[in-house]
Fold this sequence. Notes:
It is a single chain. By secondary structure, the protein is of the alpha+beta class. The protein has one domain (2-209). The chain contains 6 helices and 6 strands, in the order αββββααβαβαα. It has helices spanning 2-37, 110-116, 124-130, 143-147, 178-190, 194-209, and strands at 43-49, 55-61, 99-100, 106-107, 134-136, 162-164. Strand 5, helix 4 and strand 6 form a beta-alpha-beta unit. 30% of the residues are buried.
Amino acid sequence: MQIRLLLKRVFDIFAGIIGSVIALLIIAIFGxxxxxxxxxxxxxxxxxxxxxxxxxxxxxxxxxxPDAEEHKQELMPQNKIKxxxxxxxDFDPRVIGNELLPDGTKKRGxxxxxxxxxxxxxxxFFCVLLGTMSTVGPRPPTLDxxxxxxEHHRERLKVKPGITGSWQVSGRSDITDFEEVVRLDxxxxxxxxxxxxxxxxxxxxxVVLTRKGSK
Length: 215
């Protein structure tokens, strides 16, 4: 097991270097557009819970208004994941450029484009390089989500969280039962291998390109 973990870390360093270079290019291209459309920081940082319950900071391209976190509770009634163990809604008005028109039409903006193409995720490769995340692993929960975890939910954090993982390539927002997310993550942990990681990474590409479940 230790050899596999060592090889996984070596792969993560390699992927982290490449991903970080791509992230810097994406930031250079889209950062000015984010600034123009929504004054504020280009990079969104947030404290998340990682392996064994340790806290770390996650980095993403900012796709929401700077005050988005302050309005999260207002949108909780629309949350597709029961008990608030994760947060997923079909249309988030906090996203840059998103707007609900008077006739009920949902106008999707620039922030939605970044999210649907997963371009906003690339700065997470900085975390992979730092060793707080892995390329493949469970999604890292927010602090408020983690506080609601039962003991068996914490099993999914026996490994480093990842940029992509079993849940992400199995439908992402199409899955609304958190217990299914936990099942997929714990199954990944039990069956972990570099071959499985490679399979998930290769599956991630068409998922992103077809925007399947990437709401």
